[in-house]
Amino acid sequence: MTFERLVSDAINIKWSGIDVWDGFHDGTRHIEVQDLLKRKYHKRYAINNSVVAFIYRNEMFVIPLWKDVIDTLDKNGFSRTDFFVPFSNGEVPRWKMGQWHELQKEAERNNQKNLKTAKTAT
């Protein structure tokens, strides 16, 4: 899998920002997600419940886990870390449900193929 294909297949998550509790100011404040991504997580990925989220060019992408995804990220200089992984706990937006199910089917096919390859190699 090429990195370009990985980016085009993955679902791009676009958030403008989040409100967080700020105890110092005794209330909430708005943080731009893009600012967080730029500073801390550029070229990083996280995995939760067989879902991979990765940050590239200040955007977050989500794709089901399979070996080629991790191999491609590793080959392109990404490193693993921990952060919130959208879709990993069932929170898939309705308008992305069809695309997500297709990606899950592709991941299952690839995982089965890799399992068969590993069995024949032993």
In a few lines, what is going on in this structure?
By secondary structure, the protein is of the alpha+beta class. Helices cover 41% and strands 26% of the residues.
Q: What are the salient characteristics of this protein?
A:
alpha+beta; 41% helix; 122 residues; five-stranded mixed β-sheet; two-stranded antiparallel ribbon
Descriptive account of the structure:
The strands form 2 sheets. A 5-stranded mixed beta sheet has the order 1-6-5-4-7, with helices on both faces. A two-stranded antiparallel ribbon has the order 2-3. It is of the alpha+beta class and 122 residues long. The chain is globular, with a radius of gyration of 16 Å. The protein has helices spanning 3-9, 33-41, 67-75, 97-121; strands at 11-13, 18-22, 27-31, 44-48, 51-56, 59-64, 79-80. The protein contains 4 helices and 7 strands; from the N terminus they run H-E-E-E-H-E-E-E-H-E-H. It has one domain (3-121). 41% of the residues lie in helices and 26% in strands. The mean pLDDT is 81.
